[in-house]
Design brief:
Elements lengths: L1 H9 L11 H9 L16 H16 L3 E4 L5 E5 L7 E6 L12 H16 L8 E6 L12 H6 L18 H7 L18 E7 L4 H4 L4 E7 L1 E10 L3 E2 L11 H17 L5 E3 L3 E4 L5 E2 L2 E10 L2 H22 L2 E10 L2 E2 L2 H13 L4 E6 L5 H4 L5 E6 L15 H18 L4
Parallel strand pairs: 3-4, 3-5, 5-16, 6-15
Antiparallel strand pairs: 1-2, 2-4, 6-14, 6-16, 7-12, 7-13, 8-11, 9-12, 10-12
This protein binds zinc ion (ZN).
Zinc ion binds next to loops.
Length: 421
């Protein structure tokens, strides 16, 4: 019974913040918003998320950092040493509903531990180091993913205030309930002060584990395009309408999903996904007259994204025509792929090799705060293996050794990048 596991963990002796292992700090954090199935629920702007902020802020203060939560709800802990533009290190503390204890939290916890390690060594930075936990990376509650890093990088986020969650609460009201004013979230824009960005994250995929490696040196983050497609055919009697005369919207959608699957399979580093579909009128004995569905396509290169845009439009148009359907395609989401900073990527690889880690370079197939921050300043990401490639699930797992090694690699990169301004 997974609930028993959760209770056992709460009975462990409390860990002094950041003083034990990375895994122990992650366990302590996972008690906040713990769910009966062994997962963690800390959605954006929730009391649970702010309780996690309190715990991490306590660890930061123990390390002598200056702690604040900015107007966009980003938690910052500043080590104001040396001079010049700070190195920003972090990730996010929000989770999807019943998510894992590693996604996001690892990057923040490891940053705290890396600072502790450097301080214990008597390391004196030549420039400041800021730890950050960005608000609402996941975007599951208000469909406003990367809210905190958008605001931090100067994007106008006030327009997102009207977004509503499943309970009908607007983002603006949720922010107000937590003591924040959506109208002034733009005050979080501070990217101009920052010199570089580092993020340690779980891979959320199976590559490192399947190759028996310890550390992924991330070279790029995929771009993506999201679509909403509506196919209109003709609802009719399932028994009396001859097969040749049907205009079946679901069959059209299914053919589109299969065609995009095959196109993606034929290419390196490309994915295509139909994740949600609704058919109307939705009767077992009625030919579906309408199919309303989503398409998510991703590629690590701008050329790949351009090709996918063309493919989606051509495929939908061709199959709709063949099936006698009317198609309406709307692009709902666009994120450009990002090439990470070559020098920082090299620094990550050197730090990993210095820790005798098994290393490979790889793209990230998931979006991260780094994909926004990295458009403004040199950025790099470090991956540690995910057991079975599982993420956004209570089963998300990386071993204590894997997360500790990830933290040491992060500290190694920091030793190098904090040496000078
Ligand atoms: Zn994440």
């Amino acid at each position: 019974m997974s609930g028993g596991v959760t209770r056992l963990r709460t009975n462990e002796a409390p860990v002094r913040g950041g003083a034990g292992s990375v895994a122990a700090s992650l366990d302590e954090l996972a008690r906040i918003g713990a769910t009966a199935d062994g997962g963690v629920t800390r959605v954006a702007w929730s009391p649970e998320l702010f309780r996690a902020y309190d715990v991490v802020a306590g660890w930061m203060r123990e390390l002598g950092l200056e702690v604040e939560v900015d107007p966009a709800g980003n938690l910052l802990g500043r080590w104001e040493a040396g001079s010049g533009a700070p190195v920003l290190v972090g990730s996010h503390l929000d989770t999807v509903p019943s998510g894992g204890r590693f996604d996001g939290a690892l990057g923040v916890v490891a940053a705290v531990h890396a600072v502790r390690l450097l301080k214990e060594e008597g390391f004196e930075p030549g420039r400041p180091l800021w730890i950050v936990a960005f608000m609402d990376e996941e975007g599951t509650r208000f469909d406003a993913a990367l809210f905190g890093s958008r605001a931090f990088t100067g994007e106008d986020v006030t327009r997102l205030g009207d977004r509503v969650d499943a309970a009908g609460t607007t983002l603006r009201d949720a922010m107000a309930a937590a003591g924040y004013d959506a109208a002034v979230a733009g005050g979080a824009s501070r990217i101009a002060d920052v010199g570089a960005y580092l993020e340690l994250h779980i891979e959320q995929g199976p590559v490192l584990e399947s190759e028996g490696l310890d550390i992924g040196v991330v070279t790029s983050i995929v771009g993506l395009r999201g679509y909403r497609v509506r196919l209109q055919g003709a609802a009719n009697h399932a028994g009396t309408t001859p097969m040749a005369l049907r205009r079946d919207a679901f069959v059209g959608a299914a053919r589109i999903a299969l065609a995009l699957r095959d196109e993606a399979r034929a290419r390196e580093g490309v994915t295509a996904n139909v994740g949600r579909i609704a058919v109307e009128p939705g009767g077992a004995n009625v030919v579906p007259g309408v199919a309303d569905f989503t398409i998510d396509v991703r590629s690590a290169t701008p050329a790949g994204i351009a090709e996918l845009e063309r493919l989606v439009e051509e495929t939908v148009a061709r199959i709709a025509a063949e099936e006698g359907l009317r198609a309406d395609v709307r692009q709902t989401f666009a994120l450009e792929p990002l090439e990470l900073d070559a020098q920082l990527v090299d620094a990550v690889e050197r730090a990993a090799v210095a820790e005798r880690a098994g290393v490979r370079r790889m793209p990230s197939g998931a979006g991260h705060d780094a994909m926004l921050v990295g458009r403004h300043v040199p950025a790099a990401m470090i991956f540690v293996p995910s057991r079975g490639g599982v993420s956004h699930s209570p089963d998300e797992h990386s071993t204590p050794e894997q997360v500790e090694l990830g933290m040491r690699v992060l500290a190694g990169v920091l030793r190098e990048s904090l040496r000078t301004e």
